[in-house]
Design brief:
Number of helices: 2
Strand content: over 45%
Helix content: under 10%
Structural class: mainly beta
Distance between the termini: 29 Å
Radius of gyration: 20 Å
């Protein structure tokens, strides 16, 4: 597939990805898409619990399924079509699920023994189109709050980062970490499982660390000599997955292709180390990067390209484990000739991996050393 054909396929997938808003019924604003479709697959830290959204025609459900992922799933219907998809997030311990809708409502549902409890709307003023990050026990949230849309493109006026914490007296929303001002847009929000480290992009990479007073100390995060962006953060906040290249390589190949390499940086005593090269982007390109909460497993989609640099000859979903002597050899979870769009890649501390294929919008999960299970 050529680069332009791939872009068209990706645009079609994004168009199909529109889903419905949870709980509160709203007016029908777009034509319903055909289903069922499995979206936003997420695993608990131990890989024993999977949550996802299942779309059937004009309805959508939050689904929960426990390993070995062949039994009966628990479902919670979420109602109403809107132009934007609800944003889903599972706590690391697998006991809490959160989601938001275009009205800025944030919802929570407890999970016990792979069964969904009663949903509650949290007292949070999030603004529309909010994305969510959650810590390991569901007590800290980081919410990317978008301002009201402007113009026919529905582009938000701003995107701000807001933190929320659960106390004995209830949920408390803190002041925004970024301005609620037109043109200011925060990106790539990552919250550590500890709930004490938050990384996001806003005028460069920023790191917010929660202090003893439960306030957040924000500082720039710079990797001298590297042009990289954060992709994932470990549960303890001490390992960061990065994508990009060195400044020297960028300077030697201005405008060149295949410079989005994969790196890891570790933090010791509050200082982030020089990025370590893990995967070099040459004839193969890496997408949908995921890292396990313990930082010892990686998963990614790998496209092998032809000599022209555009034609995709092979699509693979691969995983790799860090052992005592370093990173082991990649293992193929999915291997297909030609182009296959894959979404929602995630991986657990035990090497369980889950994903969605755009063709048919089927969800899949595979425990390490076992066979792949399709979420029929």
């Amino acid at each position: 597939m050529t680069h332009s054909a791939k872009s068209s396929a990706l645009f079609c997938c994004l168009l199909v990805a529109l889903t419905v808003a949870p709980i509160s019924a709203v007016s029908l604003t777009i034509a319903p898409l055909q289903g069922p479709r499995d979206e936003q697959l997420q695993l608990s830290v131990d890989g024993r619990l999977l949550v996802w959204l299942r779309v059937r025609g004009t309805s959508i459900s939050l689904c929960v399924l426990a390993a070995p992922f062949t039994g009966e799933r628990s479902e919670l219907p979420l109602l109403g079509w809107t132009p934007s998809a609800p944003r889903l997030r599972l706590s690391g311990d697998g006991r809490h699920a959160f989601w938001s809708n275009e009205r800025g409502q944030v919802w929570h549902v407890p999970i016990e023994q792979a069964r969904l409890g009663k949903p509650e709307k949290l007292p949070i003023k999030a603004g529309g189109f909010a994305s969510i990050q959650c810590n390991a026990d569901g007590s800290v949230l980081a919410v990317g709050v978008c301002g009201p849309p402007s113009g026919p493109s529905w582009t938000s006026q701003y995107t701000a980062v807001v933190t929320v914490q659960r106390y004995m007296r209830g949920w408390v929303q803190h002041d925004p970490l970024t301005p609620l001002r037109d043109g200011n847009r925060a990106q790539v929000m990552l919250l550590a499982g500890s709930g004490r480290v938050l990384v996001y992009r806003f005028d460069g990479i920023k790191q917010a660390v929660r202090n003893e007073e439960d306030d957040w100390d924000v500082s720039p995060l710079v990797f001298p000599g590297y042009d990289v962006t954060p992709e994932a953060l470990s549960a303890d906040g001490n390992v960061m997955l990065l994508k990009g290249c060195s400044d020297a390589e960028r300077a030697s190949r201005p405008g060149g292709v295949n410079q989005r390499h994969v790196w890891l940086s570790t933090c010791e005593e509050g200082n982030w180390g020089t990025p370590e090269l893990v995967l070099r982007n040459r004839n193969a390109n890496y997408y949908n990067l995921a890292m396990s909460p313990n930082g010892r497993w990686l998963a990614w989609i790998e496209f092998d390209r032809g000599e022209d640099g555009n034609t995709i000859r092979r699509t693979r979903l691969r995983t790799m484990r860090h052992k005592r002597k370093g990173w082991g050899k990649p293992r193929d979870v999915l291997d297909q000739t030609g182009f296959q769009q894959v979404w929602n890649t995630c991986i657990s501390d035990r090497g369980a991996v889950a994903w969605t294929t755009c063709k048919g919008w089927k969800g899949y999960v595979r425990e390490f050393g076992k066979k792949t299970v399709c979420l029929d």
